[in-house]
């Protein structure tokens, strides 16, 4: 299953989106709250049930002991978000000042997340927060760069507003370059659109020159529940946000699978007539007519 990292140019609902995807997935799923600016799920959605003695920061000490200690600490600091234990959370930092201690922990944590996805079949989502750049590259402390480098998908979360697109536009080229030079390639970059504003998916993709891999509706009642916790709204299980999030997780898996097929079986350059055939076969089939 894919490891998907979500980022934004500014507050665009990354945490709410990541929660929706994790809770809606048809498979076991995990959300790693890795925003160096601090996590909000602990105090919001969980309403303080998970104390500060629980979560991401404690992995830094374990990583310095060794891989086995890190794996044990990781398992010990996961919080179950459902009774069956199929939806798990690694709660984020309680203090942004703790972020510097995690700089050398990110690569090892990324390895653990990929083992969980590849060997245990989990959908893994990373809330990487707001992107921070330094000299045209991801900031080594204010962004969990190794998690983005190794992710199967890096989704820039945007809203369909002029303000959101303007802020995102300045991040596209540096992020694409970063993934080309240090990550899984520019094809790992996609957009996740929150349908809040006048611009539709095809307009957003044209404006930013990046494909929109999924679109989620603006659903204030469910989003507020994910932000503040408490009693879920009426019809929560059938809410538009969860229904579309469930579809989105399947779209992400399909996108990663197509890319892997294209890497293994690139079009034959020697025969121009056959070039692109594989790409067309692996694309989603459109309506016939």
Q: What number is the mean pLDDT?
A: 90
Figure out the total of helices.
10
Uncertain segments are: 285-289
Strand content: 15-25%
Q: What is the rounded Rg?
A: 19 Å
Task: Indicate how many domains the architecture comprises.
Answer: 1
Can you name the CATH architecture? 3-Layer(aba) Sandwich
Any idea what the shape is?
globular
CATH class: Alpha Beta
Q: Give the helices and strands as they follow along the chain.
A: EHEHHEEHEEEHEHEHEHHH
List the strand order in the largest sheet.
Answer: 3-4-2-5-1-8-9-10
Helix content: 40-55%
Largest sheet: 8 strands, mixed
Fourth CATH level, the homologous superfamily: P-loop containing nucleotide triphosphate hydrolases
How is the CATH topology named? Rossmann fold
Distance between the termini: 34 Å
**Which class do the helix and strand fractions yield?**
alpha/beta
Please tally the β strands and state the result: 10
Short description:
This protein is of the alpha/beta class and 289 residues long.
Describe the structure in your own words.
By secondary structure, this protein is α/β, with parallel strands linked by helices. It has a single domain, classed as Rossmann fold. Helix content is 41%, strand content 17%. It is built from 10 helices and 10 strands. The protein has helices spanning 14-24, 58-65, 67-76, 106-120, 145-150, 162-182, 201-208, 220-228, 240-264, 277-282; strands spanning 3-8, 29-33, 79-80, 87-90, 123-130, 133-134, 137-138, 153-159, 189-195, 212-217. The chain has an 8-stranded mixed β-sheet, sandwiched between helices. Strand 9 (189-195), helix 7 (201-208) and strand 10 (212-217) form a beta-alpha-beta unit. Helix 1 packs across helix 9 (240-264) and helix 2 (58-65) packs antiparallel against helix 3. The longest helix has 25 residues, at 240-264. The protein starts with a strand and ends in a 7-residue tail after the last helix. Mean pLDDT is 90; it is low at 285-289.
């Amino acid at each position: 299953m894919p490891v998907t990292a979500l980022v934004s140019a500014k507050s665009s609902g990354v945490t709410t989106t990541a929660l929706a995807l994790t809770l809606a997935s048809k498979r076991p799923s995990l959300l790693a709250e890795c925003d160096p600016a601090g996590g909000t799920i602990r105090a919001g959605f969980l309403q303080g049930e998970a104390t500060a003695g629980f979560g991401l920061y404690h992995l830094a000490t374990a990583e310095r002991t060794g891989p086995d200690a890190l794996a044990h600490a990781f398992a010990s600091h996961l919080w179950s978000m459902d009774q069956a234990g199929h939806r798990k959370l690694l709660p984020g930092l309680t203090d942004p000042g703790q972020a510097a201690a995690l700089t050398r922990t990110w690569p090892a944590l990324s390895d653990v997340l990929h083992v969980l996805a590849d060997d245990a079949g989990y959908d893994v989502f990373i809330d990487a927060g707001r992107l921070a750049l330094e000299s045209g590259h991801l900031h080594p402390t204010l962004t969990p760069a190794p998690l983005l480098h190794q992710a199967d998908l890096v989704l820039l979360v945007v809203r369909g507003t002029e303000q959101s697109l303007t802020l995102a536009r300045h991040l596209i080229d540096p992020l694409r370059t970063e993934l080309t030079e240090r990550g899984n390639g520019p094809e790992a970059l996609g957009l996740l659109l929150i349908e809040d504003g006048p611009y539709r998916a095809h307009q957003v993709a044209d404006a930013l020159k990046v494909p929109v891999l999924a679109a989620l509706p603006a659903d204030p009642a469910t989003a507020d529940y994910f932000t503040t916790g408490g009693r879920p709204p009426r019809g929560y299980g059938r809410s538009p946000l969860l229904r579309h999030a469930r579809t989105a997780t399947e779209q992400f898996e399909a996108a990663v699978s197509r890319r892997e097929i294209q890497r293994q079986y690139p079009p034959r350059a020697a025969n121009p007539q056959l070039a692109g055939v594989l790409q067309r076969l692996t694309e989603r089939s459109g309506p016939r007519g």
